[in-house]
Design brief:
The complex is a heterotrimer.
Chain A lengths: L7 E10 L2 E11 L4 E6 L5 H8 L7 E6 L2 E3 L4 H6 L2 E4 L11 H6 L8 H19 L14 H14 L4 E5 L7 H16 L3 E6 L2 H7 L2 E6 L2 E7 L5 H9 L17 E11 L5 E11 L3 E5 L6 H9 L5 E6 L2 E2 L9 H6 L2 E4 L3 H5 L6 H6 L9 E2 L2 E2 L1 H14 L16 H13 L5 E5 L7 H16 L3 E5 L3 H7 L2 E6 L2 E6 L6 H8 L8
Helix pairs in contact in A: 14-15
Chain B lengths: L2 H30 L7 H19 L2 H25 L4 H24 L16 E2 L4 H4 L5 H9 L2 E2 H19 L1 H11 L1 H6 L4 H27 L11 H11 L4 H20 L3 E2 L4 E2 L1 H16 L21
Antiparallel strand pairs in B: 1-2, 3-4
Chain C lengths: L5 H26 L4 H13 L2 H26 L7 H18 L5 H30 L3 H24 L21 H5 L15 H18 L1 H11 L1 H7 L3 H18 L1 H9 L10 H11 L4 H24 L6 H15 L1 H20 L1
């Protein structure tokens, strides 16, 4: 066993994108038949490294050995030939093809489809039996759930006879129960002698399933340890390079009047699917209500309805005033006039216009403001001056109002959005995924700003898929599952396990 | 309107639908692979010019066809270069190709033949001659079926028969072969194709090349079969009608044939009756001319079923982490 | 990250693209046995060497400013309006109806109403595709192409069946009354003692086109509406978040775009032909695409590009007169400009990125 060659060995891999060094002299050995975790912050270079291994990028320097053989991987085809399979964070499936067609695509036998599909159907049955991976081969991808889609991705790799399986953040879209099922499948694969690389930023998963773990920080591999010989605290420190405050300093909330009052809120989408089912909730002045849940359980719809840009039925009151939920007055502009600010979940698609300069983004949504206008024309210099002041107060780097939003880091982009929305002195702040793709330093700053706004007596509705963030920031926690609120808890009287059950749809009484 | 007139109009429909169908299938391959092509018109035009010129100079219509296809493929390659390799705007590239063909055909033809941008008229072996199907003359007098066989089905050039055989051929390639599966996949989600180890660039260039060949045949048909030589702007918007037919058919091969036949019928009627007198009112010829465009707008508006284009259409593929 | 600095993005890339188009045009000219330098000399001489040349150059440039601005405004909203040709055709119909139906006392009032008529008809012709895009999601590129053909047929029908004077064989309207004759540059400049060729079509519309450039600049870069148009064009999802109505922006941007294209008719129909003929636009609507792409959709860029294409059109006409290079050479050059500035811009940008990266690398060290 000890003399066995590693399934994968990387030696001195480096990769730069222009001036950014994404991977610096990385070496790693992954032994066959193990689950090897790779953990690190956003932008630490995990995905770049795996993309090199899967032939998406060519490394500037370094060597790759597969089972002791020096290998070059110029494209995905070479990676597949070397027995590597990859399950991407965003699935690479053709949505209107069947499961079978997706599995066969690129791995056909001969020019005609019929024999290929027949053979794949047979192989699929065997694989299903062997690994407990159930999917209907004739189902259309867009009609099956994300969990099933992920199983298709795994089957795709196995069908190509992959011995090494790389999974990039596989649990991001799964409920805790689905994640457990995935881990059982991975365990089964390990028993069959497959090698698995699991990329994640969740410490819990690393501790639960991996045999070995490597930590990446700022493009470098800082440590590789046996999972059984480490602790979450040690890993967190290795990831960040210093001791991490996992808890936010805050005093107990002093809730005041009800600011947001939601009754029987419902959303039905174009396909006729109910996305929100009778939501009731209240947020008071001076408190943070955290909405926990696995992505895709209605949180985005809730934010969009409250933010004014998704049609719904039911009642939403802000400061006692009824908000229109359809037609005229149901838009972001009217909501802002009613004292609602909104930091959206996806700042690159919604919160910012990536090609606009920082100053234009600061005016964005508030461009009708009298302070930004002089008669019929916009007062661009006034906006620029305001942007400079905001950038200083929120420590945006570089403090250059003329720079396009896309040229700032994730954390600084988020600070621009936050500065724009918070400094409007709203009665209610809607904030979604405040620290997604944000570096640790900025996370602390953003958390402080949110708590400070609460302490000024504002109502805050926080949506996050990061349970830790929800637990450390919220004064109350509501859990969403399948468009419903499964229950409300006080952070001090609950734990991740109980919330996890609620997130999986197990109702409060049973939990 | 007697039976023979109907037969004649339908016969003319087949002739006029042929270039539309060829260009429509050309667009079909390109757009199913995710490359929008509003340059069908230009590719047909340049092929018409080169096929007529080379057929005239060599006296061989087949060499003309080859030259036409080659010139069309050259423009297709330019479109591929812009939209696949350099990830440029496919619409702009298509517009440029239409202009390039409109200008180059006249510049080259004028330099070559000094006839004001025309080619000399083609005779004999420089044109595609009608093929008389077996027993056509023998059965011509059989009532009803005789004229249908002898007048309607017989007597077209080889390109017409090839074109209509291309419809089941295309269907088979797209739905029954590995290439078809990959082609459809690359038009829907190129990332899926790429991560499955198949070259997105290769597939898309292949599709664009097929599009070039088919447009080339369409152009050659115009100049060497339907008419006897090239004249300036002789495609007269057929590339756009083909595009309209493709949308009308919702990017499917059999419906593409029917919509091209429908649009061909409209052209045939407009050609025969300048203003169509329906008794109650008179349909002006302009209305017949624009009917394909109006029908396409109605289809696009989603009033008669929704036309959903290939999802990755028009979007250059960039590898993502 | 932006690798190429902004100044290079707006100057270096268009200039290199233009040079490439010029080089390929020169190759074509050499291939047909002419001397490209001599051709250039004839073109410059023909377009700028006399007030006659200037008159035609500016006449064409006026058309292209209108259609270039039309494409640019829609493009800022990320709407690809290929329908400028049809909108300009319909604008011609609007201008012709205004000029023919009312006995105008003076050209100034006639011009004012002709502008309204041309813009309204052009806007109307853009409104249907715009509405279908905004409400039904119908791809505006295809619908505007279709509307070009439909517009041509409408014009054809109107001229042949309705507007053609009795007994005339020519599918064209009657001549407009003398009172609606627009002052030409000759008329305008004469009082200032400037002698300008009498026989060129350049007219007062030029100044309206220049004013349109300034107004469009103000609209796009200095007003709230322009801000919203650009925001919607850059990110529809962000616009939705901010409460900017996509339907409203799509409609407004296309109405302005179609209106500008329709306005062109005061130049070619009212100013030059003084009657409405078949195909009065002669492709100027399509050329607006090239003008806007070259001018990077900025009104000043559109102005420069319009002058450049005015030069190409007038110079190209002279070329056909003095050499064996046919007039269609202009279309080839136009195609190459669109290709290099619009579709192959990455071919220029990618090597530039490498150069700027290398330069930056040195600075860091």
């Amino acid at each position: 066993m000890a003399n066995e060659a590693p399934a994968i060995e990387l030696k001195g891999i480096s990769k730069a994108f222009g001036p950014v060094q994404a991977n610096k002299d990385i070496s790693i050995r992954v032994m066959p038949g193990t689950i090897h975790g790779i953990i690190g912050e956003n932008g630490a270079g995990k995905s770049t490294l795996m993309s090199i291994l899967y032939g998406f990028y060519k490394a500037d320097a370094g060597e790759i050995f597969i089972s002791g053989q020096k290998t070059t991987i110029p494209d995905s085809q070479a990676a597949i030939a070397a027995g590597i399979g990859m399950v991407f964070q965003h699935f690479k499936l053709v949505e209107n093809f069947t499961v079978l067609e997706n599995i066969v695509l690129g791995a056909e036998d001969g020019g005609l489809l019929r024999p290929s599909l027949a053979k794949a159907r047979k192989t699929l049955e065997e694989l299903e039996q062997e690994y407990d991976l159930k999917v209907d081969p004739d189902a259309i991808i867009e009609q099956i759930g994300v969990g099933a889609q992920q199983r298709v991705e795994i089957l795709k790799a196995l069908y190509r006879q992959a011995n090494i399986l790389i999974l990039d953040e596989p649990t991001g879209v799964l409920t805790p129960a689905e994640a457990d099922q995935l881990f059982r499948i991975l365990g089964r694969l390990r028993e069959e002698g497959k090698t698995i690389i699991l990329i994640t930023h969740k410490l819990r998963e690393i501790m639960e399933i991996t045999d070995t773990v490597s930590v990446m920080r700022r493009g470098e591999m800082t440590a590789t340890v046996k999972t059984s010989e480490t602790s979450p605290e040690e890993l967190a420190e290795l990831m960040v390079g210093r001791k991490v405050l996992l808890q936010v300093d805050k005093t107990p909330a002093q809730p005041g009047d009800v600011i947001l009052d939601v009754k029987n809120l419902r959303v039905v989408d174009e396909m006729g699917v109910e996305r929100l089912r009778s939501i009731d909730l209240q947020v008071r002045a001076g408190e943070i209500l955290g909405i926990a849940g696995v992505a895709g359980n209605g949180q985005s719809e809730l934010l969009e309805v409250l933010g004014g840009y998704m049609d719904a039925t039911g009642e939403v009151r802000v400061n006692g005033t009824l908000m229109p939920l359809t037609g005229a007055g149901a838009d972001g502009r009217s909501r802002r006039e009613s004292g609602v600010s909104h930091v959206p979940e996806d700042r690159q698609r919604e919160g910012l216009i990536m090609d606009f300069a920082a100053w234009e983004n600061v005016a964005f949504g508030y461009h009708d403001d009298a302070a930004y206008n002089r008669g019929v024309l916009m007062d661009n210099s006034a906006v620029r001056a305001d942007t400079e002041a905001k950038m200083e107060r929120f420590d945006v780097r570089p403090p250059n109002p003329a720079l396009a939003a896309k040229n700032f880091s994730g954390g600084n982009q988020q600070k621009i959005v936050l500065a724009r929305e918070i400094e409007r002195n709203p009665d209610l702040l809607l904030i979604g995924q405040p620290t997604r793709g944000v570096d640790i330093g900025a996370i602390e700053f953003i958390h402080q700003q949110i708590v400070a706004l609460r302490d000024q007596g504002k109502a805050i509705l926080l949506v996050s898929v990061e349970l830790e963030e929800i637990l450390s920031l919220s004064d109350r926690v509501a859990v969403m599952f399948d468009g419903q609120i499964m229950g409300e808890r006080l952070p001090s009287q609950t734990d991740e396990k109980e919330l996890g059950l609620l997130m999986a749809g197990v109702s409060g009484e049973a939990a | 309107m007697d039976f023979l007139t109907i037969i004649q109009i339908l016969d003319s429909t087949i002739r006029l639908a042929t270039p539309l169908l060829l260009a429509c299938l050309a667009g079909f391959f390109s757009e199913r692979a995710g490359i929008f092509d509003i340059g069908l018109e230009g590719k047909m035009l340049i092929a018409a010019m080169f096929s007529a010129a080379v057929a005239y100079v060599t006296g061989s219509v087949w060499l003309g066809l080859l030259a036409g296809a080659a010139s069309s493929v050259a423009l297709a390659a330019l479109h591929g270069l812009a939209s696949i390799t350099f990830r440029g705007n496919q619409l702009i590239s298509g517009v440029a190709i239409n202009f390039l063909a409109a200008g180059m055909t006249v510049v080259i033809a004028q330099d070559w033949f000094q006839l004001g941008g025309r080619t000399p008229s083609l005779f004999g072996g420089a044109r595609f001659e009608p093929i008389i199907l077996p027993f056509a003359e023998a059965v011509a007098d059989v009532p009803f079926l005789g004229p249908i066989y002898a007048e309607l089905l017989s007597g077209h050039s080889i390109l017409v028969y090839v074109t209509f055989l291309l419809v089941p051929g295309t269907w088979w390639v797209i739905y029954r072969t590995r290439f078809g599966l990959r082609l459809r996949a690359v038009g829907e989600n190129p990332a899926a194709v790429d991560t499955a180890g198949v070259s997105v660039v290769g597939l898309r260039y292949a599709a664009v090349a097929i599009c070039g060949v088919l447009c080339g045949i369409a152009g050659a048909y115009l100049a060497t079969a339907l008419q006897a030589g090239f004249v300036k702007d002789m495609t007269a918007g057929r590339g756009f009608i083909a595009l309209a037919a493709l949308i009308f058919a919702k990017w499917r091969p059999w419906p593409a044939m029917w919509s091209c036949l429908l649009f061909g019928l409209l052209q045939a009627i407009a050609l025969r009756y300048q203003n169509l007198d329906l008794g109650v009112f008179t349909v002006p010829v302009q209305a017949m001319d624009v009917l394909p465009y109006v029908l396409t707008v109605i289809i696009l508006a989603g009033f008669v079923g929704k036309a959903i284009p290939p999802r990755a259409g028009g979007v250059p593929y960039v590898k993502e982490r | 990250m932006d690798v190429v600095p902004k100044w290079a993005e707006v100057t270096l890339i268009p200039i290199i693209s233009l040079l490439l188009a010029a080089i390929f045009s020169a190759i074509v000219i050499i291939a047909i046995g002419e001397d490209p330098l001599n051709a250039l000399k004839i073109m410059v001489q023909g377009a700028f060497g006399s007030t006659y040349g200037w008159g035609y150059t500016l006449y064409y440039a006026t058309n292209f400013m209108f259609t270039g601005l039309a494409f640019a405004v829609a493009f800022h909203a990320s709407l690809f309006n290929i329908g400028g040709e049809g909108q300009a055709l319909l604008g011609g119909l609007g201008v012709a109806l205004v000029c023919l139906l009312v006995p105008w006392p003076h050209w100034t009032i006639a011009l004012l109403f002709a502008m309204i008529g041309g813009a309204a008809f052009g806007a109307l012709w853009a409104a249907i595709p715009a509405w279908l895009q905004a409400k039904r999601g119908s791809h505006i590129v295809i619908t505007t192409i279709m509307f070009n053909f439909i517009g041509a047929a409408v014009l054809n029908y109107m001229l042949v069946n309705v507007l053609k004077p009795k007994g005339s064989q020519d599918p064209a309207t009657a001549r407009f009354a003398e009172a609606v004759h627009l002052p030409t540059l000759h008329d305008i400049l004469a009082p200032f003692g400037i002698a300008f060729s009498k026989s060129t079509p350049a007219n007062v519309s030029l100044f309206i086109a220049l004013a349109a450039c300034v107004l469009v600049w103000l609209l796009i870069w200095r007003t709230r509406l322009g801000f919203e148009i650009r925001a919607f064009g850059k990110s529809q999802s962000a616009a939705r978040y901010a409460g900017i109505s996509g339907v409203r922006i799509t409609m407004i941007a296309m109405l302005i775009s179609g209106g500008l294209a329709g306005l062109m008719a005061i130049n070619n129909v009212m100013g030059e032909a003084e009657r409405l003929v078949l195909n009065p636009t002669e492709g100027a609507g399509f050329l607006g695409i090239a003008v806007a792409l070259m001018g990077r959709s900025h009104p000043f860029g559109v102005f420069l590009a319009a002058i450049l294409f005015g030069f190409l059109y007038q110079g190209g006409a002279e070329l056909a007169f003095f050499t064996s290079i046919p007039r269609e050479m202009i279309i080839v050059i136009q195609a190459l400009v669109i290709m290099f500035t619009g579709a192959l811009d990455n071919m220029v940008r990618m090597p530039l990125e490498r150069i700027f990266l290398a330069l930056r690398g040195k600075e860091v060290r």
